[in-house]
């Protein structure tokens, strides 16, 4: 598994997963094997047109394979799927570390909006 992204409110590995691909302040990029991480400001927050496509493109450019998110609307789901990025629902309020551990354990189903 390559890099996973999580929607979070603060640039911290202790941050909690938020709902909304375009509403979160930050995206946490995590290598699930080493738990190395970095945070980036969410590019959708400044996008005027198609913020979902903006985020999907930015994540694709960073070789993200999966997004862990509380809720994902149909436009965000379509943009991520088109970019070849899988989505996994994670309860809002779960810490980033817990979410990555759940993903690695196979407890977060893929593409739950289908």
Record keyword descriptors for this entry.
single chain; Nucleotidyltransferase, domain 5; 5-stranded mixed beta sheet; globular
Short structural description:
The chain is an alpha/beta fold.
Structure commentary:
There is one protein chain. With 114 residues, this protein is an alpha/beta fold. The chain has a single domain (3-104), classed as 2-Layer Sandwich (Nucleotidyltransferase, domain 5). It contains three helices and five strands, in the order βββαβαβα. The protein has helices at residues 51-61, 74-82, 96-104; strands at residues 3-8, 26-30, 37-41, 64-69, 86-89. The protein has a five-stranded mixed beta sheet, sandwiched between helices.
Distance from N terminus to C terminus (CA atoms, Å) equals 22 Å
Question: How many domains, as an integer?
Answer: 1
Looking at CATH, which topology would you report?
A: Nucleotidyltransferase, domain 5
Q: Percent range for helical residues?
A: 25-40%
Any idea what the CATH architecture is? 2-Layer Sandwich
Strand order of the largest sheet: 3-2-1-4-5
CATH superfamily: Dinitrogenase iron-molybdenum cofactor biosynthesis domain
Rough outline: globular
Rg result: 12 Å
Largest sheet: 5 strands, mixed
State the secondary-structure class: alpha/beta
Low-pLDDT ranges: none
The topology string of helices and strands comes to EEEHEHEH
């Amino acid at each position: 598994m390559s890099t996973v992204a999580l929607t979070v409110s603060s640039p911290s590995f202790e941050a909690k997963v938020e709902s909304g691909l375009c509403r979160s302040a930050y995206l946490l990029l995590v290598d699930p094997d080493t738990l190395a991480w970095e945070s980036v400001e969410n590019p959708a927050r400044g996008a005027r047109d198609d913020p979902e496509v903006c985020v999907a493109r930015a994540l694709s450019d960073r070789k993200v394979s999966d997004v862990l998110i509380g809720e994902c609307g149909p436009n965000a789901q379509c943009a991520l799927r088109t970019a070849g990025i899988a989505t996994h629902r994670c309860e809002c309020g779960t810490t980033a570390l817990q979410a990555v551990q759940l993903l690695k354990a196979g407890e977060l189903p893929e593409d739950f909006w289908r």
